């Protein structure tokens, strides 16, 4: 039987560009994806993704650059994203540069959350230096 033709934007396409980092996995370095990344384990470094989901129990330490970010686990670092959602189980320390942010009741947030216009993210080619 021939394979069904794939349609752009279909669920099948989304599944193919979604990546999952398992709970037992720790990654150090830079992660780049044009798709969606689910972090169940630990990431120590920078993440560049279209969409990032840090599930409860997941941990990210470092910078995140994405269009959409959903945090249900822990994050220690900076987030640069158009849309950020902090779930009730989120535990965030750092800075969240955003255009829209949603914070659920119960989320732990020890962060500055400066608003930025969409054009800020469109032209973001280098991250600001971290002050020591």
Task: Break the fold down into its secondary structure elements and pairings.
Blueprint: H1 11-17, E1 18-21, E2 26-32, E3 36-39, E4 42-54, E5 59-61, E6 64-71, E7 74-86, E8 91-103, E9 108-112, H2 118-122
Parallel strand pairs: 1-3, 2-4, 3-4, 4-5, 4-6, 5-7, 6-7, 7-8, 8-9
Written description of the protein model:
The protein has helices spanning 11-17, 118-122, and strands at residues 18-21, 26-32, 36-39, 42-54, 59-61, 64-71, 74-86, 91-103, 108-112. It is mostly beta strands and 132 residues long. The chain has one domain. Strands 1, 2, 3, 4, 5, 6, 7, 8 and 9 form a nine-stranded parallel beta sheet that branches. The chain starts with 10 loop residues before the first helix and ends in a 10-residue tail after the last helix.
Assess the beta-strand content as a share of residues. over 45%
Tell me the radius of gyration: 15 Å
Question: With helices defined by DSSP (H or I, 4 residues minimum), what is the helix count?
Answer: 2
Form type: globular
Care to count the β-strands? 9
Terminal residue distance? 61 Å
Helix content: under 10%
Determine the structural class based on helices, strands and strand pairing: mainly beta
Biggest pleated sheet:
9 strands, parallel
Q: Give, in order, the helices and strands.
A: HEEEEEEEEEH
Average pLDDT, rounded to a whole number, is 87
Uncertain regions spanning at least 5 consecutive residues:
1-14
- How many distinct folded domains? 1
């Amino acid at each position: 039987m021939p394979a069904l033709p794939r349609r752009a934007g279909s669920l099948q396409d989304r599944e193919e560009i979604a990546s999952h980092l398992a709970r037992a996995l720790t990654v150090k370095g830079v992660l780049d994806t044009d798709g969606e990344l689910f972090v169940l384990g630990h990431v120590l470094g920078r993440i560049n993704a279209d969409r990032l989901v840090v599930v409860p129990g997941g941990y990210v330490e470092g910078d995140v650059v994405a269009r959409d970010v959903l945090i249900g686990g822990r994050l220690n670092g900076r987030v640069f994203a158009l849309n950020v959602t902090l779930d009730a189980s989120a535990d965030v320390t750092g800075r969240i540069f955003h255009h829209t942010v949603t914070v659920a009741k119960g989320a732990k947030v020890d962060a500055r959350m400066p608003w930025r216009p969409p054009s800020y993210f469109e032209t973001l080619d280098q991250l600001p230096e971290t002050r020591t």
